[in-house]
Amino acid sequence: MNRFVWYVSALSLTALAGCADADAPSVATRQEAIVGGKISSPNDDAVVGVFGSGSGCTGTLIAPNVVLTALHCVAGFDSRFTFSCRSDGTLAPGATTGRLGAPIAPEGVSVGFGVNLGQERIYAKAIYSTGSEDVCHDDLALIVLESAPAIGDVPLVSLRFARPTRKGESTRAVGYGDVEMTQSEVGRQERKHITVRGVGGIDAKHPVDSGIAPRTLQVGEGPCHGDSGGPLFSEETGAEIGVYSLLQTSTCTGLDVRNTYTLVAPFEPLIRMVLEAEGAEALVEPSEPSASGGGAGAGSIPVGGSSGSGGSEPPLGEAAAPSGPDEGSGSYQDSSCGLRAAGGHAGAPWLPGAALGLALWAARRARARKGARS
């Protein structure tokens, strides 16, 4: 059973990751921001940059001083090598990479904000996570900041907890990924009209769309290296439905690109716990879809695939996710040699358990599916 873990600055420093060879090969030689995107407006200022030991990711402000991001952005993780994730959300047998180390000490994590990420940085005082030990599943964490970034009247990010995410749904990605040299504009980017190509079930025994790992969703071209931890927003409601985790192909461009986001909804208990500790409440997307909502079927938990409305990208079947191992690479690029590990689980308060939150999520999906049929 996965347990929700928290790490605070008071915990002792137990390890220093070894320095990487400066000439070691990178996962990808091309590092791009949101592929085919454009500079996002100041209205997206709740999307922030996340920095750990000199490396960059993306995150979202879900409370004045709480950032939602990917776990591999704030934990020891070597992204220089590819690794294989199976469709059940586990590392392939014998994998030597793709594992997550201990979290970076909170004082080693900072957040920047603004379209072009100004010089001001706000440091973390605590890091909460799902406790996942590899990047193939449950790649989600929350950062509690020492103070709130000054984003003015820009609204914080709302979250999808109860409403199903469906194959065929239209979404928007935002992130601070590195910009390829051929692009003229540098800064936070967005790309609209990204179609959800598949949604995973509650666990490997209850799949929804074939080949999609549990508690994830898959899209095609859009995010790329450096966009890790960044949001996937519903274009209908503006709510964040996923946190960018993995690029499962060797390039960020093309019809066969597969990008994986960790679903937000299964981790509602963890998110609510962190927000409550900070005296905040989650901004929650309305649970009832409008008549013009995303495609039908996928996103509910009972066994069985489902159909969805199409989009501007090819259907899942045209670039089908294999049922065997997927080549994966963390979208977090880290060339530093100082990943610090905040130590020890001793004394950390646990939630009643991930199973309770996941059961709640499954029950909601089952009710949603039943309502759609009646």
In short:
The chain has a single domain (5-373), classed as Thrombin, subunit H (Beta Barrel).
Descriptive notes:
This protein is mostly beta strands and 374 residues long. The chain has a single domain (5-373), classed as Beta Barrel (Thrombin, subunit H), CATH 2.40.10.120. It is built from 2 helices and 18 strands. The protein has helices at 268-277, 354-373, and strands at 5-8, 13-16, 38-39, 47-52, 55-63, 66-69, 83-85, 109-112, 122-129, 141-145, 170-175, 189-199, 216-219, 231-234, 240-247, 259-263, 326-330, 340-342. A 6-stranded antiparallel β-barrel has the order 4-5-6-10-9-8. The relative contact order is 0.24.
State the main characteristics.
374 residues; mainly beta; Thrombin, subunit H; 6-stranded antiparallel β-barrel; 2 helices; 8% helix; 25% strand
Query: H/E order of the elements?
Result: EEEEEEEEEEEEEEEEHEEH
How many domains in all?
Answer: 1
Question: Biggest sheet, open or closed, and with what strands and sense?
Answer: 6 strands, antiparallel, barrel
Beta fraction: 25-35%
Shape-level CATH architecture: Beta Barrel
Mean pLDDT: 74
The shape is: globular
Which spans have pLDDT < 50 for at least 5 consecutive residues?
6-32, 291-356
Oligomer: single chain
Instruction: Trace the largest sheet across and list its strands.
Output: 4-5-6-10-9-8
End-to-end separation? 35 Å
| Rg, Cα atoms, Å | 19 Å
The total count of strands amounts to 18
| Count of individual helical segments | 2
**CATH class value:** Mainly Beta
Helix content: under 10%
